[in-house]
Amino acid sequence: MGEGGARVGPRFRRRVEGPSGLVALATLTVALNACGQAHAATPAPRPVAASTVPVRGCQRPSTSGTSTLTLRVGGRDRVARLHVPHGYPAQRALPLVVNLHGSGSTAVLQETASQLSRTADAHGFLVVYPQGIRRTGAGFSWNIPGTPAWQSGGPDEAAYVRELVATVSGRYCVDPARVYGAGFSGGGREVSQLACESNRIFAAVAVVGGLRAPSPCVAGPVPVLGIHGNADAQNPYNGHGQPYWSYSVPEAARRWAVHDGCPTSAVVTAVPGATVTAYRRCQGAAAVELYTLPGKGHWWPADRSGGFATDEVIWDFFADHPLPRHRVAGSAP
């Protein structure tokens, strides 16, 4: 338990096992496009725990599974993958998680590596996997301010993500108070940047292997979850990495805690497979939590190795931090 009796450790609601690591892109593309085959081995999902908020005018998908979205933003064609969970309800709104891939990766690889679609089926939320447009090797990267590859005239990633959220919300029943952002590595750096936008996109964010604290940060208090292996050689846990990675991951969490108006002292707790550094009682119902994974490197640990359930921890954090209703666009004051 954290300060004030707050829960610090994860609630393990359901065990969802899946393969770890990345396999060849061509194999993944074929496998994931065969939606029926991809989910044939998935455990039978429980009923979707949808919002109690009724939504009118939403289109209802005829089937669940993953499909491709194409939209034009800033004169560029952008693509993403959208996963609709099993048991999609007829009259209630669902949360939406925007899950960004790392540098040199793709939306397909991020869906496979993170296994978040399985968690969506288990708990009942939509997941959209955006894809960068700047070619990096066999994949794509994000145009992130503060990195050496930043281009002022390059893709406007914030505009893309906003339009993507608006597109999904227009086609499906999305609860505007429960739109969340997640990302790995470079996608985590992009999510960190998006969390600082003045016109808030996400109710809360979760970053695996890429937590930063952008400055200036013009957003109000934002619930932030970080997950990072202390043996990460790409984005070193203790900092002193590439030019965009000068300070440590704990320092990034501390800076977010300062931004969120949290108490200066953190509560440190051991949980299966990780150590949690938690800042509680922050302004605006925010919180900052950092899960340090001993001996883990630079990957999204979706295989529960060491007893740590990455996706369950992320979803628990999101479920605990909806956007306050008075801050939802169009809601009554």
Task: Describe this protein's structure.
The chain is α/β, with parallel strands linked by helices. Helix content is 23%, strand content 22%. The protein contains eight helices and twelve strands. It has helices at residues 25-33, 35-38, 107-114, 116-123, 157-171, 186-194, 249-259, 310-320, and strands at 65-73, 76-84, 94-100, 126-130, 134-136, 139-141, 174-184, 205-208, 224-229, 267-271, 274-279, 288-293. The strands form two sheets. A ten-stranded mixed β-sheet has the order 1-2-4-3-7-8-9-12-11-10, with helices on both faces. Strand 5 (134-136) and strand 6 form a beta hairpin. The protein is globular and about 45 Å long. The two termini are 34 Å apart. Mean pLDDT is 83; it is low at 1-52.
Q: Give the percentage of residues in beta strands.
A: 15-25%
> What's the SSE pattern?
HHEEEHHEEEHEHEEHEEEH
Helix content: 10-25%
Characterize the largest beta sheet: strand count, sense, and whether it forms a barrel.
Answer: 10 strands, mixed
Please give the alpha-carbon distance between the first and last residues. 34 Å
Radius of gyration: 18 Å
User: How many DSSP H or I helices?
Assistant: 8
Mean pLDDT: 83
Overall strand count: 12
- Secondary-structure content class: alpha/beta
Oligomer: single chain
Can you tell me the residue ranges where pLDDT is under 50 for at least 5 consecutive residues?
A: 1-52
Strand order of the largest sheet: 1-2-4-3-7-8-9-12-11-10
Shape: globular
